[in-house]
Amino acid sequence: MPTRRAKIPATRYPVERFTLDNGLRVVLAPDRSAPVIGVAVVYDVGIRSEPEGRSGFAHLFEHLMFQGSENLEKLAHFRHVQGAGGTFNGSTHLDYTDYFETLPSNALERALFLEADRMRGPRLTEENLRNQVDVVKEEIRVNVLNRPYGGFPWLALPPVMFDTFPNAHDGYGSFDDLESATVADAADFFRRYYASGNAVLSVSGDIDTAEATELIERHFGDVPARPAPARPDFAEPQLTAERRSAYTDKLAPLPAVASAWRVPDPIGDFAAYLPYVVLAEVLTDGDASRLVERLVHRDRAVTSVGGYLGFMGDPFDVRDPTALLLQSHLPPGGDVDKVLRTVDEELDRLATDGLGDGELARTQARMATHLLRETDAVLGRALRMAVLEQQRGEPELLGELPRLVGEVTDEQVRAAAAALRPECRASVEVIPGGAR
Amino acid sequence: MRAPQSRTKDGPVSARPLPPLGPTRRLKLPQQAERTLDNGLTVIAVRRPAVPLVEVRLWIPFGRAHLARGQMLAQTMLSGTETMSSVQIAAELQKIGGGLSVGLDPDRLMLSGTGLATGLDRMLEILAEVLTGASYPAEWVGVERDRLIDGIQVARSQPAHLARTALLKRIYGRHPYAVQTPDPEQVRAVRPAGLRTLHAQRVHPAGAVLALVGDVRPERALDVAEKALGGWQGDGHRGDLPPAPPLVPGPLLLVDRPGSVQSSLRLALPAVPRTHPDLAALQLANLIFGGYFSSRWVENIREDKGYTYGPHSLVEHSVAGSLLVAAAEVATEVTAPALLETSYELGRLATVPPNPEELEQARQYALGTLQLGVSTQAGLASLVSAYAGNGLRLDFLPEYAARLAGASADDVAEAAARYLAPARAVTVVLGDAERIASSLAALTPIETVPVPS
């Protein structure tokens, strides 16, 4: 029986774009449905750009951007955002670093002031640097060292798959590297990467476009012009032989395994890339997906399996090289080799027989829901649009994604599945250490 | 970097002033409608059409249910019915961009999901099918039993889970809130027949609340819900919980986790329910102490001393009682100093009134984040559901905002003295006893226990 296909709704957020004289690119996405705004500044520098011997520096520097700036004492940024009823954060990714606030809309000018002030220059002091090295070490302990499966697989898999420092190294950084960071390093990093020409400002939500434009001119217009640095080429060749690695996690009670395969360039060849995004969901989204049905329920070979694009789960905000990842947690005594073999079998079956009736359409409908849900929050919209502007010059792509995902064909998904060969797979296995 | 001193050639730089805030926008409640169906199910529909989706939250009171059976019921409720297999349920939901999940806590069973707004009718039909016909097929129950046991084993290797478990046990003693994760042996003993019985006894429309939030017309959404769920029947056991016992301070409970590179610090303090007249002042006092980044505690142990990454304190509301919990993961070598600073900040707030600027800052944060919280479909749905589960409606939100706006400095000082006094705290530390016991014992009496296996 042919299945009825859910109509994938279109969303069209109005988007305004312009560039200030100093090179700062601006994206505005007005939506007056709630009296709140999202403000994001994204700098085109991330984990891949940090120099050897300075692993973790991009993230450490993100912390330093909160430690005061030209007109703001230490702690002032936090207090001014929260004292306006807002929330803030920042995060460091492979290819970019973002800083953001969600606020009641009456705080627009304040948020612009705060972001402009640190774009002119953070206060980089020895005391703040030492304090934040300590804080980052606690962050690493809580997220990696003191818990089972810490950093799995986002820190564990890149060194198996990649050979060059930018792609392979630990983005949280070694304690040695963090401790040897200096104020001079930070000043240099700021000068090189935190240039007006290397940044995008994005504001979404309850704004009047003309008013917001004027306020942005007022606060960012005199940020000194500095051009974007040339972006190095991080390309690496495709794997020609399977790679396997394993490590013992002394806190982990059960085995786990993650695999990655290189995928087409998400920016340069988006049309070829998109089927892989869909494939990951066909394989792992819910009880009706192929690998959940087979590995969890039929074979009982895993307790959970997940699939996604990008080491940080970032399908639409990462550049080449990146990967499709599958990760599984296994029951006691589980057989990792068998799991990998079964995945290969299922990929073969998909490549050979194609998708079942309605299988693609229902997966696409579910993906549309996920995409729409992320953009309901003003901040989600501001952040995603800022990165889409930065990496593609195309913030309006955000509204197009549900439709574009919906246009991926059965044939394309089959071809993507066929490309995930065992000989170009990199895998890492967690051996449970038993102890607690 | 262009720090001010590098600009001397231009002469002294006049500081740029912080722009003032614009006029406050009033908290506007969305359009909503409510109906109680003949079967006792309350349905609340709220319109927020920003994206073409609808959020579904079904709260079913579930107090005093057998823990392992309850967890297994949540784990297997979507495993099939008379007419649909688990895979069919999942696939039918996917077709309308939907999905459902089931969760359990000591208060309620919660079925939640999101889907395309155009699929609401179908999503509720499938929900009804599950509520009236979940069949707990033996094979699936077997699979899910193993998965739940594996999940418990993984949870037990996580310090945050272990610290929470120890804290709850210490606070609640024999109350049903004391143990919230079943033992694997109890899970292993659960059988499909037991799940069917529990379902028949407890999965009832009477007392349950369904919240539908999103791109819907509220009256029409109620009609759709009535059509789909009007046939769901059953009544009986409600499982009312006894009130939570008062906190009984005692020696610090040190849970020994050898080799731990951090210590998990947990302090529980008394709190009051959502409707209590003290809550607004207590919330403000909590913010000033440790409830947001710009708090004394975070500024002290993170931004000044670098002991920790993400300390936070939060008032947690449950049906049978409320609690204030302060939590921090601190480096092993500074465990006692971090506890000392924590007691100091609590004690200072409990005995010295906060200054007016920090109160206003906390107040603006509390009011602003109320607005932020209801600015998404998901946030609104969670709030509507949590309120309804505690007998409240969305119109309580502006009332609570008015209480926050009206709390005086005296009210906050009084609340701090009453609720934040460190003498009233129940304290649990999970960490490497060999390295931290003696310095902790310098501050307070301690009782050491091994980490549960």
Automatic annotation (TrEMBL), chain A:
Peptidase M16 N-terminal domain boundaries: 25-142
Every Peptidase M16 C-terminal domain range: 181-366
InterPro entries with a match to the protein in the record: Metalloenz_LuxS/M16, Pept_M16_N, Peptidase_M16, Peptidase_M16_C
Source taxon at top rank: Bacteria
Keywords in alphabetical order: Hydrolase, Metalloprotease, Protease, Zinc
Record family assignment: Belongs to the peptidase M16 family.
Record protein name field: Peptidase M16
UniProtKB/TrEMBL annotation, chain B:
InterPro entries linked: Metalloenz_LuxS/M16, MPP/UQCRC_Complex, Pept_M16_N, Peptidase_M16_C
One Pfam family here: Peptidase_M16_C
Domain Peptidase M16 N-terminal: 72-181
Chain residue ranges for the region called Disordered: 1-25
Transmembrane segments: none
Location of the Peptidase M16 C-terminal domain: 195-364
Protein name stated in the entry: Peptidase M16
Organism (species): Micromonospora qiuiae
